[in-house]
Amino acid sequence: MKKEFFCLMVLVCMVSLVFGQNKRAPKIIFINDHCNFDTIPKGKKVTCRIEFTNKGKDPLLIKNITPACGCTVASYSKEPLKKNKKGFIEITYNASSKGAFYKTLAVETNSSSPYYMVYVKGYVMDNSW
Q: What is d(CA 125, CA 129) in angstroms, rounded to the nearest whole number?
């Protein structure tokens, strides 16, 4: 009897997890999730803006953004965004090394899926020619 009760409780918990997701949870929708700087000269800093919208009912909050390297810096909307409000991530890349680059930034939110990746890419040309 105890075994059947335990199995039933596990089943109820699993069903609750699957179907009991928060319908009010914030939901981040990126308008664009990357920036393409194309070709830029070595030594130049370039900046782009990535925009997103909260499509959930509860306020959306960006908790943190972690760049993959020190050549990339991000600033972002710090205030909670209500439903259908837009926010931004501004990314600055320091083109200190020549060649192609592809840099990722991890975005942590309070959304139902809390982690997202955005990226910048391009090619840094040598100034010597």
A: 9
Nearest residue to 48 via CA among 34, 29, 65: 34
Give SS3 for 127.
coil
User: For the sheet containing 62-67, what is the strand order?
Assistant: 34-41, 115-125, 99-109, 62-67
pLDDT digits (tens, 9 = 90+) for 20-63: 456 789 999 999 999 999 999 999 999 999 999 999 999 999 99
Specify whether the CB–CB gap between 73 and 67 falls below 8 A: yes
Q: What one-character DSSP code corresponds to residue 60?
A: B
Rg of the chain taking only CA atoms, in angstroms? 21
Which pLDDT tens digit goes with each residue over 70-100? 999 999 999 999 999 999 999 999 999 999 9
34 in Cβ contact with 58 (< 8 Å): no
* pTM, to two decimals: 0.78
Q: Which of 87, 86, 85 lies closest to 74, judged by CA?
A: 87
